C-alpha cells in the first residue's frame, strides 16, 4: 500500500523541500498552500498521480474541511500516513507591542497554531486508518528564545509546542505527534519563480552555528523523515538549528 503525506505550506520553502523529499522516498504527497502559483510549480515537478495540490487557507475552518474531504476522496479508502503542519507566516517581526493590533496578532496565531489544530482534527479519521501514523508540527527556535518585536510569532510557535505534547498524550497510541524547531533555515532557493534568491552568507553568519553553516530546508525534511519513522518517539521537540541556540555569544 502506498504511503501518503499531507504537508501544509507545501508550495515553497520547508514545505516544498519536504514534499520533494518524501516523493523521492516513494510517497504520495498532498500539498496545501494559499499560493496557487507556488502549488502549480510544485505539481509540475511531480507525477500527477503522485501529487494532490490543494489551494487552501489552513487557518480557516471551512477551507480545511473541504481540503481534507478532497484528500479522503483521493486516498479512496487508503490511510494518510503522515501530516506535517508546516504553514505559517515566515516573517516573525510584528513591530512594537503597543502598535500591534488584535487582527494582526490573530493573523500569526491562525497561520500556525490554529492551522495545526484545524488540520490535525480534520486529518484524524484518515490518520487513524494507518498503522503507525504521525503528525509533525513545524515550530521554531523562537519558541525557546526571542528577538525584539516578535510577540505574535513566538506565541504561536510556543503554543504549537504545547499543542504538540497535548496531542501526543491524547492521540496515542494510534497517532504520534512531535515538533521540529528549525533555527536559521535559508529558504531563498526554495521559493517560487520570481521570488527565488540564492544568498551568500557571511563568514560571521556561518560562524554563529557550531555546524559551520546556515541550515537548509533539506535539513528539516531529514528530521521530519526520522520522526515519521521513529515509532517510539512522541511528544518531543527536535531542534534543528546547527547548534546555534546552545552557543553562547557575547557582545563585543
TrEMBL record:
Pfam families on file: adh_short_C2
Segments of this protein annotated with the region Disordered: 188-215
Ranges of compositional bias, category Basic and acidic residues: 193-203
Lineage of the species this protein comes from: Bacteria, Pseudomonadati, Pseudomonadota, Alphaproteobacteria, Sphingomonadales
Keywords of this entry: Oxidoreductase
Gene3D superfamilies attached to this UniProt entry: NAD(P)-binding Rossmann-like Domain (3.40.50.720)
Similarity comment: family membership: Belongs to the short-chain dehydrogenases/reductases (SDR) family.
Species this protein is from: Tsuneonella litorea
PANTHER family with a match to the protein in the record: DEHYDROGENASES, SHORT CHAIN, ESTRADIOL 17-BETA-DEHYDROGENASE 8-RELATED
Gene Ontology molecular function terms on file: oxidoreductase activity
Protein name: SDR family oxidoreductase
Amino acid at each position: 500500500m502506498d504511503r501518503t503525506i499531507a504537508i501544509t505550506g507545501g508550495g515553497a520553502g520547508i514545505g516544498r523541500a519536504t514534499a520533494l523529499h518524501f516523493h523521492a522516498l516513494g510517497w504520495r504527497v498532498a500539498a496545501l498552500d494559499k499560493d496557487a502559483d507556488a502549488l502549480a510549480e510544485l505539481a509540475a515537478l511531480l507525477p500527477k498521480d503522485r501529487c494532490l495540490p490543494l489551494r487552501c487557507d489552513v487557518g480557516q475552518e471551512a477551507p480545511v474541511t473541504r481540503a481534507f474531504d478532497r484528500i479522503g476522496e483521493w486516498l479512496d479508502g487508503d490511510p494518510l500516513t503522515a501530516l506535517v503542519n508546516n504553514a505559517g507566516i515566515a516573517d516573525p517581526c510584528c513591530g512594537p507591542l503597543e502598535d500591534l493590533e488584535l487582527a494582526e496578532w490573530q493573523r500569526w496565531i491562525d497561520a500556525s497554531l490554529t492551522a495545526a489544530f484545524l488540520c490535525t482534527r480534520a486529518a484524524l479519521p484518515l490518520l487513524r486508518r494507518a498503522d503507525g501514523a504521525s503528525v509533525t508540527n513545524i515550530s521554531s527556535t523562537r519558541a525557546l528564545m526571542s528577538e525584539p518585536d516578535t510577540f505574535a510569532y513566538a506565541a504561536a510557535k510556543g503554543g504549537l509546542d504545547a499543542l504538540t505534547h497535548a496531542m501526543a498524550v491524547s492521540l496515542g497510541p494510534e497517532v504520534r505527534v512531535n515538533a521540529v524547531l528549525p533555527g536559521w533555515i535559508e529558504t531563498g532557493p526554495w521559493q517560487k519563480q520570481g521570488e527565488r534568491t540564492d544568498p551568500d552568507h557571511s563568514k560571521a553568519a556561518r560562524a554563529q552555528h557550531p555546524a559551520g553553516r546556515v541550515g537548509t530546508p533539506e535539513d528539516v525534511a531529514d528530521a521530519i523523515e526520522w520522526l515519521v519513522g521513529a515509532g517510539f518517539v512522541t511528544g518531543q521537540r527536535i531542534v534543528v538549528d546547527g547548534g546555534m541556540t546552545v552557543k553562547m555569544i557575547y557582545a563585543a
